[in-house]
Amino acid sequence: MREKCCAILGSPPATFPWGYDEEDPACASLRLLLLNRITLLRTQGVTDFYVILDAGVGLYAAESVAQLRVNDEALRLICAVPWEGQATKWTPELRERYFNVQAVCSEVITVSSVRTADCEITAMLNAIDRADTVLAVSGEGDALLPVALRYAEQLHRRIILLDSDTEKLRV
Do 82 and 119 form a contact (C-beta atoms < 8 A)? Predict the structure, then answer.
Protein backbone atom coordinates (compact mmCIF):
# COMPACT_ATOMS: atom_id res chain seq x y z
CA MET A 1 0.00 0.00 0.00
CA ARG A 2 1.33 3.43 -0.92
CA GLU A 3 0.84 6.27 1.48
CA LYS A 4 -1.89 8.64 0.36
CA CYS A 5 -3.15 6.52 -2.53
CA CYS A 6 -6.77 6.59 -3.64
CA ALA A 7 -8.30 3.80 -5.72
CA ILE A 8 -11.13 5.01 -7.93
CA LEU A 9 -13.74 2.41 -8.83
CA GLY A 10 -16.99 2.73 -10.73
CA SER A 11 -19.90 0.79 -12.07
CA PRO A 12 -20.16 0.23 -15.84
CA PRO A 13 -21.83 2.98 -17.91
CA ALA A 14 -24.88 0.81 -18.61
CA THR A 15 -25.75 0.84 -14.89
CA PHE A 16 -26.30 4.61 -14.88
CA PRO A 17 -29.53 6.27 -16.05
CA TRP A 18 -27.69 8.07 -18.87
CA GLY A 19 -25.74 5.01 -20.05
CA TYR A 20 -23.10 6.20 -22.51
CA ASP A 21 -24.73 9.62 -23.11
CA GLU A 22 -22.13 11.94 -21.63
CA GLU A 23 -24.14 14.96 -22.80
CA ASP A 24 -26.85 14.11 -20.27
CA PRO A 25 -26.93 16.72 -17.46
CA ALA A 26 -26.79 13.99 -14.80
CA CYS A 27 -23.57 12.64 -16.30
CA ALA A 28 -22.05 16.12 -16.44
CA SER A 29 -23.05 16.65 -12.82
CA LEU A 30 -21.43 13.38 -11.77
CA ARG A 31 -18.22 14.25 -13.63
CA LEU A 32 -18.06 17.59 -11.81
CA LEU A 33 -18.75 15.91 -8.46
CA LEU A 34 -15.98 13.41 -9.20
CA LEU A 35 -13.52 16.18 -10.15
CA ASN A 36 -14.39 18.11 -6.97
CA ARG A 37 -13.84 15.04 -4.79
CA ILE A 38 -10.50 14.24 -6.49
CA THR A 39 -9.40 17.86 -6.00
CA LEU A 40 -10.38 17.73 -2.33
CA LEU A 41 -8.48 14.47 -1.83
CA ARG A 42 -5.43 16.07 -3.41
CA THR A 43 -5.63 18.98 -0.95
CA GLN A 44 -5.77 16.35 1.82
CA GLY A 45 -2.43 14.97 0.68
CA VAL A 46 -3.39 12.18 -1.71
CA THR A 47 -0.58 11.94 -4.26
CA ASP A 48 -1.45 8.75 -6.16
CA PHE A 49 -4.73 7.99 -7.90
CA TYR A 50 -5.14 4.38 -9.03
CA VAL A 51 -7.92 4.24 -11.61
CA ILE A 52 -9.57 1.21 -13.18
CA LEU A 53 -9.68 2.45 -16.76
CA ASP A 54 -13.08 1.72 -18.28
CA ALA A 55 -15.43 3.59 -20.62
CA GLY A 56 -17.27 5.32 -17.79
CA VAL A 57 -16.20 6.39 -14.31
CA GLY A 58 -12.62 5.22 -14.87
CA LEU A 59 -12.21 7.37 -17.94
CA TYR A 60 -13.90 10.37 -16.28
CA ALA A 61 -11.64 10.05 -13.23
CA ALA A 62 -8.46 9.50 -15.24
CA GLU A 63 -9.17 12.57 -17.37
CA SER A 64 -9.78 14.62 -14.20
CA VAL A 65 -6.52 13.50 -12.60
CA ALA A 66 -4.64 14.06 -15.87
CA GLN A 67 -6.04 17.61 -15.99
CA LEU A 68 -4.82 18.28 -12.44
CA ARG A 69 -1.38 16.80 -13.19
CA VAL A 70 -0.69 19.60 -15.69
CA ASN A 71 0.00 21.95 -12.76
CA ASP A 72 0.99 19.38 -10.13
CA GLU A 73 4.14 17.36 -10.81
CA ALA A 74 3.81 15.40 -7.56
CA LEU A 75 0.46 13.94 -8.60
CA ARG A 76 0.58 10.40 -10.02
CA LEU A 77 -2.03 8.67 -12.18
CA ILE A 78 -1.86 4.90 -12.29
CA CYS A 79 -4.24 3.35 -14.81
CA ALA A 80 -5.21 -0.30 -14.47
CA VAL A 81 -6.47 -1.93 -17.66
CA PRO A 82 -8.48 -5.09 -16.86
CA TRP A 83 -7.51 -6.76 -20.16
CA GLU A 84 -5.64 -5.87 -23.32
CA GLY A 85 -7.93 -4.93 -26.16
CA GLN A 86 -10.84 -3.92 -23.92
CA ALA A 87 -11.34 -0.76 -26.00
CA THR A 88 -11.42 -2.60 -29.34
CA LYS A 89 -15.19 -2.29 -29.75
CA TRP A 90 -15.53 1.16 -28.20
CA THR A 91 -16.48 4.14 -30.33
CA PRO A 92 -13.54 5.89 -32.00
CA GLU A 93 -13.97 8.90 -29.70
CA LEU A 94 -13.85 6.76 -26.53
CA ARG A 95 -10.85 4.82 -27.83
CA GLU A 96 -9.01 8.08 -28.55
CA ARG A 97 -9.69 9.39 -25.03
CA TYR A 98 -8.65 6.02 -23.56
CA PHE A 99 -5.29 6.04 -25.33
CA ASN A 100 -4.73 9.76 -24.69
CA VAL A 101 -5.10 9.19 -20.95
CA GLN A 102 -2.73 6.22 -21.05
CA ALA A 103 -0.17 8.38 -22.85
CA VAL A 104 -0.05 10.91 -19.98
CA CYS A 105 -0.41 8.67 -16.96
CA SER A 106 2.46 7.76 -14.65
CA GLU A 107 2.00 4.02 -15.00
CA VAL A 108 -0.23 1.57 -16.87
CA ILE A 109 -0.89 -1.85 -15.36
CA THR A 110 -2.55 -4.52 -17.50
CA VAL A 111 -4.24 -7.20 -15.41
CA SER A 112 -4.75 -9.80 -18.14
CA SER A 113 -3.70 -10.26 -21.76
CA VAL A 114 -7.19 -11.61 -22.57
CA ARG A 115 -10.62 -11.06 -21.11
CA THR A 116 -11.31 -13.50 -18.31
CA ALA A 117 -14.26 -13.92 -15.98
CA ASP A 118 -12.36 -12.32 -13.12
CA CYS A 119 -10.04 -9.72 -14.68
CA GLU A 120 -12.30 -6.77 -13.77
CA ILE A 121 -12.72 -7.75 -10.13
CA THR A 122 -9.01 -8.59 -9.94
CA ALA A 123 -8.21 -5.06 -11.16
CA MET A 124 -10.47 -3.60 -8.46
CA LEU A 125 -9.02 -5.73 -5.67
CA ASN A 126 -5.45 -4.92 -6.74
CA ALA A 127 -6.31 -1.22 -6.64
CA ILE A 128 -7.78 -1.57 -3.15
CA ASP A 129 -4.66 -3.43 -1.98
CA ARG A 130 -2.51 -0.44 -3.00
CA ALA A 131 -4.79 2.27 -1.62
CA ASP A 132 -5.64 3.71 1.77
CA THR A 133 -8.80 5.41 0.39
CA VAL A 134 -11.38 4.09 -2.05
CA LEU A 135 -13.52 6.51 -4.04
CA ALA A 136 -16.39 4.62 -5.66
CA VAL A 137 -19.27 5.63 -7.91
CA SER A 138 -22.14 3.21 -7.83
CA GLY A 139 -24.69 2.60 -10.55
CA GLU A 140 -27.85 0.48 -10.41
CA GLY A 141 -27.50 -3.29 -10.42
CA ASP A 142 -23.71 -3.55 -10.59
CA ALA A 143 -22.59 -6.95 -9.26
CA LEU A 144 -18.83 -6.32 -8.99
CA LEU A 145 -18.59 -3.01 -7.14
CA PRO A 146 -20.35 -4.26 -3.97
CA VAL A 147 -17.89 -7.18 -3.81
CA ALA A 148 -14.96 -4.78 -4.12
CA LEU A 149 -16.39 -2.48 -1.45
CA ARG A 150 -16.84 -5.37 0.98
CA TYR A 151 -13.19 -6.25 0.40
CA ALA A 152 -12.21 -2.63 1.09
CA GLU A 153 -14.21 -2.72 4.32
CA GLN A 154 -12.44 -5.93 5.39
CA LEU A 155 -9.11 -4.18 4.86
CA HIS A 156 -10.36 -1.14 6.81
CA ARG A 157 -9.91 1.26 3.91
CA ARG A 158 -11.57 4.65 4.03
CA ILE A 159 -14.49 4.45 1.58
CA ILE A 160 -16.08 7.43 -0.12
CA LEU A 161 -19.16 6.45 -2.11
CA LEU A 162 -20.66 8.84 -4.63
CA ASP A 163 -24.26 7.97 -5.39
CA SER A 164 -24.90 8.81 -9.03
CA ASP A 165 -28.68 8.92 -8.69
CA THR A 166 -28.88 11.41 -5.86
CA GLU A 167 -25.47 13.06 -6.17
CA LYS A 168 -24.99 12.45 -2.46
CA LEU A 169 -21.69 11.66 -0.89
CA ARG A 170 -21.47 8.88 1.66
CA VAL A 171 -18.23 8.52 3.61
Answer: yes
Q: What is the pLDDT at residue 164?
A: 63
pLDDT for the residue numbered 29: 92
* Dist. CA 159–CA 152, nearest whole Å: 7
Q: Is the pLDDT of residue 2 over 60?
A: no
Is pTM beyond 0.90? Reply is yes
The pLDDT of residue 8 is 98
Three-state DSSP string of the chain = CCCCEEEEEECCHHHCCCCCCCCCHHHHHHHHHHHHHHHHHHHCCCCEEEEECCCCHHHHHHHHHHHHHCCCCCCEEEEEEEECCCCCCCCHHHHHHHHHHHHHCCEEEEEECCCCCCHHHHHHHHHHHHCCEEEEEECCCCCHHHHHHHHHHHCCCEEEEEECCCCEEEC
As for how many domains the chain has, the answer is 1
* Domain that residue 158 falls in: 5-170
Kindly report the CATH number assigned to the domain that includes residue 86. Answer: 3.40.50.450
